[in-house]
Amino acid sequence: MANTYTQIYVQIVFAVKGRQNLISKENREELHKYINGIVSNRKQRLYAVFAMPDHVHLLISMSPAMSISDLVRDIKAGSSKFINDKKWMNEKFNWQEGYGAFSYSKSGVDHVIKYILNQEEHHQKKSFKEEYLEFLQKFEIEYDFQYLFEWIEN
Q: What angle, 0 to 180 degrees and rounded to 10, lies between the N-to-C axes of helices 25-41 and 68-86?
């Protein structure tokens, strides 16, 4: 798009179907690289990605030429196919339906990157459910609890 200039930073969060702990530490880095490839091939920029056993956080700089929903669909479809092709688990792997997308200004990018990369430490103190509900409240997003992710209580 000629003469179109944007700066759109979005943190995307989505979960493993059934909130099962299926993403192992041993496979995490390979999954991160694969997701980065999907994002790059869609001509977007990945600033940070971290896959916990049951959910993923990404910070992406988006172009207005692509919708968030199309990018998330491509990431989830491509990465689930990748995981299944690698046979990292005995059962079929799927992501849950839905996702969270939260926008940030340029001044918040470094903080969000640190937050994403410190997920393991962060989740020693707070569950994914607590974290996700805090995002929804912080960004003043109205929601119906019955349509949120399936929650597995630890």
A: 140
Q: Is the dihedral of CA 107, 110, 111, 115 positive or negative?
A: positive
Closest Cα partner for 129 from 117, 118, 143? 143
Q: Which of 111, 104, 138 is nearest to 7 (CA)?
A: 104
Q: What's the rounded Cα separation, in Å, for the pair 129 and 13?
A: 12
What does the pLDDT look like over 113-143, one tens digit per residue?
A: 999 999 999 889 998 888 989 999 999 998 8
Residue 11: pLDDT band with limits 50, 70, 90: very high
Q: What are phi and psi of 9, to 5 degrees?
A: -110, 125
Q: What are phi and psi of 42, to 5 degrees?
A: -90, 10
